Amino acid sequence: MAWKGRTPNQQDYNQLISALANSGLQQSNNALYQVIFQLVQVAQKNKDLTVTQFNELTQIVDSVSNTVINPTTGLANLSYLTTNFELPSLPNSRQLLAGVGILFDDTLPGKRTISAISGGASYIPLSLGIEPLTFMSDGLGQPILVPFIP
Fold first, then answer.
1. Which pLDDT does position 98 carry in this prediction?
2. Given this model, what pLDDT does residue 137 score?
3. Taking the model in full, what pTM does it have?
4. Distance CA 59, CA 120 (A)
5. What are the distances in angstroms from CA 144 to CA 45, 128, 132, 150?
6. What pLDDT, on a 0 to 100 scale, did the predictor assign at position 38?
7. For residues 137 and 143, is the Cβ–Cβ distance under 8 A?
8. What phi and psi values does residue 67 have, to the nearest 5 degrees?
9. Which uninterrupted H or E stretch holds 64?
10. pLDDT (0 to 100) of residue 2
11. 10-residue block means of pLDDT along the chain (150 residues)?
């Protein structure tokens, strides 16, 4: 819900028109009376326009707020893949990380190019780490290979 602020105390310009009519200025100085009367009318129209525009803006802000932070349909609740860690502000986000032999190219605005490194990555057999050198196998005699980038 958008901030509503305090309830404004709007001036009623009709009181000024009544006071102007009771002042007798219309008979003694009609030109001045007309100027003051028109100024009061313009002020009333500007006040009405300002109140109308403020109410319209409040409705727009409420609509945008509901779109963004609504607990069931808001944008914050959608799933996102992100470059950076965005979990605090986007609870359903997942950071996209490049694995071994993968490069991200973000030079094009709004686009991500994913490339695999060729030639530099290879696989080596996993060893038990004891002497003599003993390789681990999958149980069928095939060595277990792990990626290696020199």
1. 83
2. 85
3. 0.42
4. 58
5. 82, 11, 18, 19
6. 92
7. yes
8. -65, -40
9. helix 30-69
10. 54
11. 60 83 89 91 88 89 78 73 83 82 85 77 78 82 79
Domain boundaries, the chain: 1-97
Q: What is the pLDDT of residue 68?
A: 72
Backbone angles phi, psi at 54, to 5 degrees: -65, -40
Q: Is the peptide bond before 8 cis (omega within 30 degrees of 0)?
A: no
DSSP 9-60: ----THHHHHHHHHTTHHHH-HHHHHHHHHHHHHHHHHHHHHHHHHHHHHHH
Q: Encoding tokens for residue 36? A: 């003051």
Give the Cα separation of 125 and 141 in Å (integer): 12
Decide the pairing of beta strands 102-105 and 113-116: antiparallel
- Tokens representing 13 are 């310009």
- How many Cβ atoms sit within 10 Å of the Cβ of residue 2? 14
Tokens of 37: 């009367």
Yes or no: say if 146 and 123 are a contact pair by the CB < 8 Å rule: yes
Tell me how far CA of residue 37 lies from CA of 17, 45, 47, 125, 145, in angstroms. Answer: 7, 13, 15, 95, 92
The pLDDT value recorded for residue 39 is 92
